[in-house]
Amino acid sequence: MHWQIDLIILTFTIFCALAAITVKDLLSTAILFGAYSFMMCLLWAVMGAVDVAFTEASVGAGVSTVFFVAAVFRTGRRTKD
Amino acid sequence: MSEFLPMIVAKYNYWLYIVLMMIGLYAMISKNNLIKKLVGMNIFQTSIILFYVSIGYKTNATIPIIENAHGGGHSAQELVIHAADYINPLPHVLMLTAIVVSVATFGVALALAVKIYQRYQTLEEDEIRMRLTEE
Amino acid sequence: MRFIALIIVFLCGGLLLYATADFPAWGDPNSPANSYLSPHFIEKSIEETGVPNLVTSVLADYRGFDTMFETAVVFCAGLACFLLLRNYDRKEENFYRHLPTGVIIQFKKGDKTLPVGKEFEHMDTEWVPYDLIIKTACRILIPFIQLYALYVVAHGDFSPGGGFQGGVIFGSSLILYAIAYNLRTLVQRIKEKMLGLFSAVGVLIYAGIGLICMILGGNFLDYGKLTQILPFDPGHIRAYGMLGVEIGVGITVMAVMVVIYVNIVSEGKHDEGL
Fold it and tell me: CB-based burial of residue C213 (10 Å sphere; 0-12 exposed, 13-18 middle, 19+ buried)?
């Protein structure tokens, strides 16, 4: 497994995580959180854990993002910090 | 210094996983909004799952599905399987359960956040504390 | 508060980084995690259970107890969402639109309701325009998504997949139906009672298979004893036991995903949604 792919995907993951907790708009947080889940799924696929990657793709980048957007729809969208 | 370099190259993955864990922990402690705290909790959970799955990796090994085994029951008995050829499946199994539990927890936590918003009309922690002490 | 949080984070991070000096090198085949039980699972799985996917065979057979309680946890989460949010109050004002003329009628009290059909339709509080492309595209896609979900459950023994992944995909196809059309359409098609029943039936199938094995004379979830009632040969009976158990997991997960979505997006009232 090439260490270059690993390093690039890990850097993207850390950027997505930092961005998801910093932005002030909760809908953007939901989408960035979906992107973070997708990067995790890629990391596990590169490491050879195909079952875990399948589960994270269907759960994290699918259903979990929909729950998050549904909750933001019912509560406020803007946050102070 | 030259003996640190192979050690850094062999273990830099673990350091980046620890950085991710600490990002999640910081969000859980210091953010005011309840949903940001939830995002931090989920980042913490997935980074621990990532760390755990990476323990089972073996170099020059393939995915944990045995090849040439699908095709009749009789020919499968002549297979010789070496444990070093396949990635360890045990961390994957335990972490599959962890991912399932994490999504169930996330759903219930979002339901609690919606309920809190219905009651106090806000999701910021300091405002909720003020409105609690006023009653 | 942020200063204290930063200190705590750096302290924990520093301690963890110091502990990585003791870790085995990355990708070592002889590390302690790869040594004691997992060579047995890798080498003996196909002759004892007949299933090539090692993760499924460990999940549903060697560690079947964990999966049973995981299914129970998912069921409890669906139950908790339902109990927290479900609200049986009637809405106070109702809006209807008369389709031939476009007139909008508003009822203030909520006692009277009009029959919905060809002449009248419900109007949601937030008006969404009728979108033909999304409805037609989703209508064509949803059966294929469900077929793929059933494939993932059934083929979990030979390829990546299994009960949990197939159940989530099936549940998300039903959520797609609710988003493309209307939450009311989904709730009328698949009633709340059926969803509650499905989520309980899955756990019951799992525990029931274990009890049947115990009645036939073995341990709990000992699939080898099922040869007395099923007509399959003893080399493959464990694979069929695993398939039955994975179907139970898939049914529960599908129902719970839909229950959690419907309750969160409508705040428990089951009338309007995304």
Answer: buried
